[in-house]
Amino acid sequence: MKNKLITIQCVLLLLVGCTNPKPETTNLKYVEEPHSHAQPNEAVITHLDLDIKVDFNQKIISGKASYDIEHNKATEIILDSKYLDIEKVEADGVATEFSLGSFDEQLGKPLKIAIKEETKKISVYYKTTDKTEALQWLNPQQTADKKHPFLLTQGQAILTRTWIPIQDSPQIRITYDATVSVPPALMAVMSAENPKQKTADGRYGFKMRQAISPYLIALAIGDIEYKAISSRTGVYAEKSMLDKVHDEFSDMEKMVAAAENLYGKYAWDQFDVIVLPPSFPFGGMENPRLTFATPTVIAGDKSLTSLIAHELAHSWSGNLVTNATWDDFWLNEGFTVYFEMRIMEALYGKDRADMLALIARQDLDEEIEGFKDTPNETKLKLDLKGRNPDDGMTSIAYDKGYLFLRTLEEQVGREKLDPFLKQYFEEHAFSTMNTERFIQYLDEHLLDKNQVEFNTDEWVYQPGIPANQSIIKSDKFDKVEQAIQQFIKNNKVNPAVTKGWTTQEWVHFVRNFPKDINKDQLKMLDEAFDLTHSSNSYVAMVWYEQTVTHDYHGNNVDTEVEKFLTSVGRRWYVSTIYKAFKKSGRTDEALAIYKKARPNYHSVTTNTIDELLGY
Ligand code: BES
Ligand code: ZN
């Protein structure tokens, strides 16, 4: 609606001499998008019918992707494809000409399909290949129950085109139906209406009635079961994990209720989470109706469930209102971190939320330090043309984005910010947003309206962090910092001080050792707290970062580091540890471990680590 209004305004302005319209006020529905070959302004897909067979022996998905299309007398429609074998293409059921353009390392090949004026449907018969980047085929040994293989997909940012030929831009929105045939011992689930039980013949039908962006199409197949938490929330996991996962995430219904209370009705009916094998490359992925999650958050004490709050928050910021291009990624992630913190505060109180916010604040400082020679990377609005959009997945989008909204909250107050955000999600539901249009909307509906001055442009378009930033404080973390000083000064640990510490306090403790901490001091701490064998993956990860950095080898930590790197594929975790190796001149040791670990990693993780270690 808004778009149309702008268009009308601009047409009127043009009539009276509007000579220099801004790019965002053109009458084209889709903005220029550097990460897709599609030309949706010419011809666009609106619905996908997927009919595929999954062959675990050959590690191939094959079948047919049919699309309803819309166009105005176009002669061709362009899809994205990468590492796919295209067998034949039909237009309204009749074979039609198609061609594949030249290969681009990031984008793959444009699949150009001849259509006629009256063409309403196209079908592409295709197969995936062994290069297909979205898919991770796991052997039974890589699963929790070790009996059956597993397959998972990861679409964001531009990987869906490696398992389905599609217009792979976040601006595209499609509904979908899918039929998926799998070996009968396994169950298939998607970002759609899902089965709760296995079928006898291994055929599963899916429906996604709400329109989503292609990066959110997802599939997981394994020997999994379902356990409900409430009528609209529940978990999928392998049998041996199911009860643990159910206990860990038992607050999920409360999270959905808290989120709805903040920013409006949950739009996707069902909110389930599937806990995947540990080689899943992310902490979580907000696939609509079915968040994908790493098992590393199953800590036994619910201490890492902010990840669920985060993925749930994407049901508004990201899935409902979607970044138009990957340059606008901060609109997805910054808003989501802000929303995540609000959900956590609503459920567990301000202390917990402030600790999370302060951890994020430290992440941001470290990220900015890492970008000190390339300050443009610290802008919220990015310029990723010609680059892998994954490069934008840094703390800047997440934590600077968060800090921007938190600072805004401080300026205008929650009583004004919350209704504004609620209205923003409502008015732009099931559509895309870019940075420029967001700023315009912010000006109109929050700042000008309340006569508030705010340096939005500086936050968005300048590097670094503006001086008016919100200052985050946590009494609990102050005490943790005092404990560190005391232990180091006395050369003696007083375990009573740490009694009742939460995971966040332990993480803060380990991350804030003095830079010149020595091996004896690390040994003292490890002897007191056995950090080397921490059962909490986050605490273990930050501890291993320290032991690698400071060349500490006590308590068999080297064995544990290797175990961790060869069993976990979560990119953020493993890259933190490999970076520590590299920074302390121990790349050879890292490479020796990486050689063993690499077969367990998804392509998004190997891409990052290959580059980091020069593999
Ligand atoms: N959507 C992201 C994951 C992502 C981003 C995948 C960009 C591919 C490209 C997801 O919501 C996310 O942010 N995951 C985080 C967890 C979170 C608690 C910060 C992760 O995986 O670490
Ligand atoms: Zn996210």
Feature tags:
615 residues, Immunoglobulin-like, Zincin-like, Neutral Protease, domain 2, 4 domains, five-stranded mixed β-sheet, binds ligand BES, binds zinc ion
Descriptive notes:
With 615 residues, this protein is an alpha+beta fold. The chain has four domains: 43-222, tricorn interacting facor f3 domain (Immunoglobulin-like); 235-315, Zincin-like, CATH 3.30.2010.30; 317-461, Neutral Protease, domain 2; 481-613, Serine Threonine Protein Phosphatase 5, Tetratricopeptide repeat. Helix content is 38%, strand content 20%. It has 18 helices and 21 strands. The chain has helices spanning 2-15, 239-248, 252-263, 306-313, 329-348, 350-370, 395-412, 414-427, 435-447, 456-461, 475-490, 503-511, 519-529, 537-549, 557-567, 571-583, 587-597, 603-613; strands spanning 43-55, 60-71, 76-81, 84-91, 94-95, 98-100, 109-114, 121-128, 135-138, 150-153, 174-181, 187-190, 203-212, 219-222, 224-228, 233-238, 271-275, 284-285, 290-293, 321-323, 431-433. It has a seven-stranded mixed β-sheet with strand order 5-4-8-2-1-11-13, with no helix packed on it. The protein has a five-stranded mixed β-sheet with strand order 15-16-17-19-18. The longest helix has 21 residues, at 350-370. The chain starts with a helix and ends with a helix. The model is unreliable at 1-24 (pLDDT under 50). Bound molecules: ligand BES and zinc ion. Zinc ion binds at residues 310, 314, 333, 336.
